[in-house]
Amino acid sequence: MGDDEPMTDPNAKAVTVAGPSDAGDGAVDLSVHPSGIVPQLQNIVATVNLDCKLDLKTIAFHARNVEYNPKRFAAAIMRIRAPKTTALIFSSGKMVCTGAKTEALAREAARKYAKVISKLGFPAQFKDFKIQNMVGSCDVKFPIRLEGLAWSHGHFAQYEPELFPGLIYRMQMPKIVLLIFVSGKIVLTGGKNRDDIYKAFENIYPVLTEFRKLPNPNDEDVLAQLAAPSAAGAAALPAP
User: Fold this and answer.
1) What family does this chain come from, according to its entry (predicted)?
2) What is the DSSP string of 160-187?
3) pTM passes above 0.85
């Protein structure tokens, strides 16, 4: 489902959400996002084949915003501001583009890099463009009991708070890795398209609500008891 596609079902329920989302401001199609939450795409990694051998030293010398240190890394690193992205350019002609936040921007950025290389005299083509990974994130706005989730979903979940503060959940269908934090922040990675990201979140959302951390009523009781003596003492003080 693209960013600007209209709702096809005129009777579909919609909910208005606050803040930006990949679906745009306004109504969210609950037939696609039953939770009412739309994960935002944060990074797209795409690859393309320029179909020619490249002299990375020449590219680094003549092009702007390029880093190349073959002793540290085998690729030249090129950056552009619009769309704000980074490209890893290999001498084989393969290129990896990262940093775009939509599929269209990923393709646009890759074409711009190819054009820069072509202007340097290389017979660069634009073949086999493919999105390899999408990263999305969202916030369910409630804390989560990660220990209980890890115990209940041990086949898919890994939680070692002494090593990493989030729970790692490896979903099989779709094949997405989720990083789940106690705060309710969620990161989803491994998608080949945005539908994978959306479906994975809708799959996990009922599980998250099941392990929602509820406030402890005893905490309020303790605070009230601590405050009571102070209030009584203040009341006993003579008026100025």
Assistant:
1) Belongs to the TBP family.
2) -TTT-SSEEEEETTTTEEEEE-TTSEEE
3) no
